[in-house]
Structure formats: structure tokens, C-alpha cells
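Dear colleagues,

As part of the handover before I leave the project, I'm documenting each prediction I ran so the next person doesn't have to rerun anything. This entry is a single chain, and its sequence is reproduced below.
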Amino acid sequence: MSPMLALIRYQLQLFARSYRYFAPMTLYLIFIAWIYSMIPNPVMSSYASTSVCLFLVAAWLSFNFYSTEPPTQQQLTLMHSRSGIRYHASRMATVWVAAFPLTLFAVLYPIIRGSFDRAPTAIEMAVSLYSHLLFTWMAIVLTALFCSKIGTQLISKLGGLVLALTLSLAVPGLAEWLPSPLQWLLWVVPPASPIIDTLMNFDALGEAPAIAKLVWPSLYTLALSLLTVVYLQIRRK
């Protein structure tokens, strides 16, 4: 087994024994069951709702994961990993693996149950699955950034994370409120709104324009992932 896979396996086992995953996962499953208890539902707008909820739940799940391993044990794990980049990347990958079943459930459950007003197309399923996965990874990276290095107090970590999540969802309102000279600040905010807009207005946009709207959130999340891992490596937790 490669060192990366061994780290992910170890951290998954540690997280599983902590039972800190139980509350966020259970509440998300209940939310999915509730939202599809009323039939029929529109396809893409329903997926928009479940993806936004997953964005928040994935951050909650990640926050619990980053609070699981004691600081002393983290130092030992980092030492045995022999690479700070491998260690921090494995932590983010571990949460993604833990959250992946929630993504599959959110996308497949309404199809299997027949909760939609029509059968989703293959493109709609692919875009919805990708949007849920992208939201999950964005939440994980944001949580890693705040919980790994920014602030040592719980209020600093949680406050920063909640602020980032809130701002990312409030970009359309901020765009109307901010004066023109400060509009550039919105490029720094995590781009959650283009993902939501893609799902909510998929039919009106058309397949190609809708998919194109996911390019910027994807590039932003990729860049933030790389910067976060490099930043944590430089700071040497």
C-alpha cells in the first residue's frame, strides 16, 4: 500500500472510531429523505438545494474531522508521513472519501425512489453529481485552511469558517451592495453562487453555457487546494 493510501486509511479508521461523523451525516440523510418525501420534485432545482446543504454539511463533517486527532498525535502522524504535503493532502482526501457516500445518496436516492417529475437526462445527472462533488471539495479545502493553521482558538477557526461559507453563498447580494471600486474583492470569495446558478437555471442556460459556468468554481477550488497545501507545508504544523 502506498504511503498516501496508508495515511488515508489510518485517518479514516481514527475518524470512524470517534463517531464525530454521525451527527452531520445523519442530519443530511434526514434532510434528503424529507425534501423528497413530497412528490413530484423538479430535477435541477432540487439538486441545487441538496448541493447547498451538502456544502454546509461537508464543512461540518470536515470541522469534526480536524478536531478528532489530538495535537500531539498529529505531530507524530506528520513525522511518520515524511512529507508535510502528503500529510495535509491526505487529511483533505480522507474527508472527501468520508463524504463521498453522501454525494452518491443525494444524487441517486431521488432517481431510485422516483421523486422527480421526470427522469433526469445523463447530462443533468453528470452535472448534478459534479456540482455536489465540487461543493464538497470546496468545503473541505476551506475547512482545512481555517482549522489547520488560522488561529489556535476554537472561536477563531469556527468563526473564520462560518464567515467564509456565508460570504460564498451571499455573493449575489454583496455584488449589489459593494461599490464598483471594490467589486474585485468578490473574486477572492469562494464561488458558490455560480454552482447554484448552474443548477437552478440549467434549462434556461442550456447545457453548454451551464457547464461553462462551472469552470471558474473548479479552477478556484483547484488553486485554493494547491495554495492551502503549500501554505500548511510552509507553516509546518
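The first helix runs from residue 3 to 18. Residues 37 and 161 are 32 Å apart (CA to CA).

All the best with the project,
I.
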